[in-house]
Design goal:
Structural class: alpha+beta
Strand content: 15-25%
Distance between the termini: 32 Å
Number of helices: 9
Number of strands: 11
Radius of gyration: 24 Å
């Protein structure tokens, strides 16, 4: 992204001096706004609920008066391995919202539109990025979840049939990345930064991710790709429907776990084509989707998996009746998972 330059460098210099002279006096605010409900680690809207507002709360320790833009991150990242280089600018260039880094203490930023999109499943939830587009020396600083207090958190307000509810949640990951040290990771830092370094014009950006999951009403289906990425191994937030099977549970005679089977390239082996849709169909059933359109094919596939190994199916010729049966059943279960038959796909 092209950055605009601002030549009013002395302003940020005086702000930096002010921080060192007076900044420590601002630490009397050691807690955030009093949460109205116990802090949780994962959130989906309850069935029938409507999100009213979502507010990002961050504690500002150092200001530079610049506009900070909040962007949707578009690729998975891990706080203990993300760097400037491997993140590689993976965010939507159109900001979701913005605010000024001009006040010490707690800041509340409205991120309702972005959180609503995640909860609807419009985009995968890879978190948000804080970016200062204007190039002016100096940076803004916030406490991270690794700091002793004043952790960033998200406050969610939603309406249900029982009235208005509120909950708060801390990030599952936060980090800053630094263009001056493009291969270094700062995921364990107690601080988050945005802005630019004196003399070098190298940027810092901050990343945060909260464990927000789309609400599925149980009457729809999801694909093998969804279930693979939403296992306990990530990279997307965990869907606890997996707990009813267990990612590491052995998958019949395959010599692998359910999760390992999902991650295996078929390489022309009809065993895996069927296994992918079999596992997804089972998870969809456990998630509450109407299973009647898939049950007969699922039961036939169960007998096949109880009888054959991947190696045995790999040796079969294309015209083999057994191999053709694997392909036929994979088609039915695939149609179920993709919403062509059955209750329909989760949009």
């Amino acid at each position: 992204m092209h950055k605009q330059k601002n030549l009013l460098l002395p302003i940020s210099f005086f702000l930096l001096v002010a921080f060192f002279l007076f900044g420590c006096q601002q630490e009397n605010s050691v807690v955030g706004p009093e949460p109205t409900q116990q802090n949780i680690s994962k959130f989906s809207l309850p069935a029938g609920a409507t999100l009213t507002s979502a507010t990002l709360n961050i504690h500002e320790y150092m200001l530079n008066g610049q506009e900070i833009k909040i962007h949707r991150i578009t690729s998975p990242w891990d706080e203990m391995s993300v760097t400037w280089s491997n993140f590689n600018g993976a965010f939507d260039p159109t900001p979701s919202t913005s605010f000024l880094a001009d006040t010490w203490g707690w800041r509340q930023i409205d991120v309702t539109n972005l959180v609503s999109a995640w909860l609807r499943g419009d985009y995968p939830n890879y978190g948000l990025l804080l970016d200062q587009e204007i190039v002016v020396d100096g940076w803004a600083q916030w406490s991270s979840k690794e700091w002793t207090s004043n952790h960033p958190y998200l406050e969610l307000t939603y309406s249900t049939s029982e009235g208005t509810q509120k909950t708060t949640m801390e990030p599952i990951g936060d980090a800053y990345i630094y263009e001056l040290y493009p291969t270094e990771n700062f995921g364990s830092s107690p601080w988050l930064y945005t802005g630019w370094t004196f003399a070098t014009n190298k940027e810092k950006q901050s990343l945060l991710q909260f464990d927000l999951e789309p609400t599925h009403d149980g009457g729809c289906t999801l694909t093998p790709g969804y279930w693979k990425t939403h296992s306990k191994y990530g990279p997307a937030p965990y869907d606890n429907t997996w707990k009813q099977i267990g990612e590491d549970t052995p998958f019949f005679l395959s010599g692998m776990s359910y999760y390992q089977v999902l991650c295996t390239s078929p390489a022309g082996n009809a065993y895996y084509n069927l296994s992918f849709h079999y596992i997804a169909a089972k998870l969809n059933e456990l998630n509450g989707a109407d299973f009647s359109a898939a049950k007969s094919a699922f039961d036939e596939a169960t007998v096949l998996f109880q009888t054959y190994t991947p190696a045995q199916i790999a040796l079969l010729k294309g015209s083999s009746p057994v191999r053709q049966k694997f392909i036929y059943l994979a088609g039915i279960l695939g149609n179920y998972n993709e919403g062509i038959i059955g209750p329909g796909h989760c949009d």
